[in-house]
Design goal:
The chain has about 350 residues and is of the alpha/beta class. The protein contains eleven helices and 15 strands. The strands form three sheets. Strands 1, 4, 9, 10, 11, 12, 13, 14 and 15 form a nine-stranded mixed beta sheet that branches. Strands 3-2-7-8 form a four-stranded mixed beta sheet. A two-stranded parallel sheet has the order 5-6. A hairpin with an 8-residue loop joins strand 7 (about 90-95) and strand 8. The longest helix is centred in the middle third of the chain and has 16 residues, at about 145-160. The radius of gyration is 19 Å and the shape is globular.
Length: about 350
Amino acid sequence: MGKKIVTFGELLLRFSKQESMRLQQGRTFFGDYGGSEANVAVSLATLGDEVEYVTRVPDNPIGRASCMKLREYNVGTTHVLYGGDRMGSYYYEGSAGMRSSKVIYDRAYSSFYYLEPQMLDWHKIFANAGIFHASGITGAISQESADATFEALRIADEMGLTISFDVNYRKNLWKYGAEPKSTLSKMLSFADVVFADVIEYEYMTDRKVPFPAMSSDYEMPMEVYREWFDEIHARWPRCKKWLMGMRNMISSSRNTLTALLWDQGTLYQTRIYDIQGIVDAMGVGDAFTAGQLHALNAYPDDPQKILDYSLAAATLKYSIAGDFNLATDEEITELMKG
């Protein structure tokens, strides 16, 4: 099996105001690029992995510039499809003090919105690839993009790729009539490795296990989590690795963060980071996912190291502005050592 990683999703324009301004303040928006699966791709490329990103963008200067941005970070864009009329975007208001961050999407009728099955040659895209990474976001945008995602998942399965899936439930995106839990559950049935935060696991299973850690010495209720993961695996038995990210947002500048990994019946835990002086919390989950995918290749027989590496990668993202995690393998490994 090849080692190339293929990620699939919508590339977005990100608009934000200066520092901690609210969206209605000031006159100037700052533009950048982002999107969950693109964030994963950039992080993987920064870590030295061969990664190919697949999306659809308009064939205009904005669409071409977005792919140029990805290529700056050594992300492959050979199979990007050009077409449609507009680029999807989102507006981001950063958190401050006890005020949470805010995201407003503008993704309806974008180029990716109209991506349909058979537009992409997945057999060619997956040649020499070992891992395919997708997320629930592409199932939420439109019926067309959901159908295209299922097509990709089926072909990846037929070709024997390891399928990584990030639940990425975004309740504000499900506007075209599909039932989110049903669609996400069907996507999960293809997955070999799954990542979600604790809130997404709660949504999919209708069970609540909060993470109220106020410091790094919080005692995790491991037996409760063990029982929960066993139930989850019984529902989606194909998946052999379940990762759960947990964070308690104490304030805009301080979060506690940890994660668990259920691997073929064994539950692993890692340290709790008490993170202060946050620069940008956007993309922390994507940084975790990328860390996990890199570690799957780098440490295939060491589940504890996979988990430790993933969480260290996510922790470093808090110190980096923008959607992309530009932490290096050396920095992540040093943080793992304490």
